[in-house]
Design a protein that fits this description.
Blueprint (H helix, E strand, L loop, with lengths): L5 H21 L2 H31 L5 H28 L1
Length: about 90
């Protein structure tokens, strides 16, 4: 009797049958060139969609995600400054 169950041997054989050709492809320069191009295209498309949605929301006088993020950052800075001033006042008392 073998140490590995039959189902495990079948899974390993299937994985190797599929995995070896895939591994051979992802190690090529062509794969990296294609992935670089796809990544750049995806990033560009996301930037265009984001810009269009931001403009559309502003036309409707609604805040975009960047507006909310900027307000959140500004609020965090104000909270830190308020804490500093509170500490300063406590030191003076």
């Amino acid at each position: 009797m073998s140490a590995k169950p039959l189902w495990l041997r079948a899974v390993i054989r299937l994985e190797r049958a599929v995995g070896e050709p895939v591994e051979a492809v992802v190690r090529t320069e062509t794969y990296f060139d294609v992935m670089t191009t796809v990544t750049r295209a995806t990033k560009g498309a996301k930037r265009k969609v984001s810009g269009a949605s931001t403009r559309g929301l502003h036309l409707l006088n609604l805040p975009a995600g960047t507006d909310v993020r900027n307000l959140r950052d500004q609020l965090a800075r104000m909270e830190r400054r308020l804490n500093q001033l509170s500490e300063h006042v406590e030191e003076l008392d």
